Amino acid sequence: MTIALTDTAASADGSHQLKRSISWTGAFWVASGVPPLVLFSIGGIAGTTGTPAFAIWAASMMMGFLQSFVYAEIAGLFPNKSGGASIYGAAAWVRYAKPIAPLSVWCNWFAWSPVLSLGCSIAAGYILTAIAPDATSAIRTFTLFSGSLGPVSFSLNSAFFIGAALMLGTFAVQHRGILGTARVQKVVGVLVIVPLVIVGVAPLLQHGVNWSNFQPFVPLAEAYKPEPGAWNIPGWTLVLGGMFIAAWSTYGFETAICYTSEFKDPARDTFKAIFFSGLLCIAIFVIVPFTFQSELGLAGMLETPIVDGSGVAAALAHMVGGGPIIENALVMLMILALMLCLMTAMAGSSRTLYQGSVDGWLPKYLSYVNHHGAPTNAMWTDLGVNLVLLAIACADATSFFFILAVSNCGYIIFNFLNLNAGWIHRIDSGHIPRPYKAPTFIIALGAVFAFVNAVFMGAGAKVWNPNALWAGLITAALIIPVFFFRHYVQDKGKFPAQMLEDLQIGDAGGAMPKKAGALPYLTLAAGVAVVLIANAVFQF
């Protein structure tokens, strides 16, 4: 396997390609949009779990960090691929069940892509509040059209149009390629991460830790109600719901390895990108929720503006002892933080679509790259889908959390498949040199965590919406007919030669060795069983 280290923008056939233009620091700054994801669900997790909320964030973050070493290893196997861990993991599963490979890619995409719509809806809310503080003003109440769609509502209101403008701005920045994106992310990242750390640390230095706000250490008896519960089945269901939704944020720094085909030196840059991104996330996801809870207490965390996210900036200002000026500054911080998330989401999710197309799993049109080295067709697809989701997210909090829960079902499925891809690659591709090789116990722990995550999904998705699990599974299955059309109709049952070359298994018609035998199939069956059992056992 050779590593394409060219900086040219066009291949021999005249088509444009992704460019090797960044080091690990560039990927680090692109991934710096992950820490602000804590602001998406800090109120929701506190509102559903109560005093264990800070521990849920810390436990989820440590799981995500340990899992990332598995992803760092398998990413090193594919220095010419982009798109992230789902692409590298799909290469393990394609030997055993062709539809599982695109399922991994698709689930990762519909997990990450809604960050665009969800982030834009929150940012639009802050902008509207800033320009029209009166909730009854014409601009705040304007709605062009609204309705319902199954379990959710949708609304073309003022928040939708402001959110759409923010989304288009994100597209414009990324249209110029990954190097330009990384430069913008570096500036915005410093403006966001530094104040976020200050907000996390300053209140502890000023006021100390209010330990009474962490007692009693039991889940709520009922979500969004202040009465403490017990460590019984309903209590554990709420806690597992917290672990389920926290994973959407805390595991997200794995997006730092979406850019291996754009690294100048993938053997060196890949591990450093995900490792240092993980360290940054540990600091933010552990400190900020802890300080948040220490300052607000259970009653404060259960207030409606905290749960729905609209009052988080005001709460942060109160935590550092600031007045209206500080609060307005923190509103700007929130908007910048959300823009940082949007940039990270579009950069990673569009490259997932692009590489999935190049490898023969997703529609061909997604493999187009412009002369700047940006996968613009994939970016337009992200934009179009998220405009629809934005209309839903802007309708009400129930619809917002429904999107979040459904997208996280995809994220858990992706993590299940890719954590198990670690040991499959060890068995099937043990002969391929690895720039970074994780300790064997980490590979084994990753397989265990795959099933722990399956428990989170089976038990916890219902906490956010009773239909979330089934909607997530149906959404995941939508990729199967798409893949069948691409593979069996367009490609006549053969994968592109480059994809198989990356696996070092010969030409497009070559046989794929399956050294793992029946173990991958048993793993899939066991994963489905764990989800269904957890869903049946854990009830309110």
TrEMBL record:
Under Pfam families, the record lists: AA_permease_2
Coiled-coil stretches are none
MF GO annotations: transmembrane transporter activity
Residue spans crossing the bilayer: 27-48, 54-72, 109-132, 152-175, 187-205, 233-253, 273-292, 329-348, 387-417, 438-456, 468-489, 518-538
Q: Where is this protein chiefly located?
A: membrane
Name its cellular compartments. Answer: Cell membrane
Entry membrane topology: Multi-pass membrane protein
Q: InterPro entries, alphabetically?
A: AA/rel_permease1, APC_superfamily
- One GO CC annotation: plasma membrane
Name used for this protein in its record: Amino acid permease
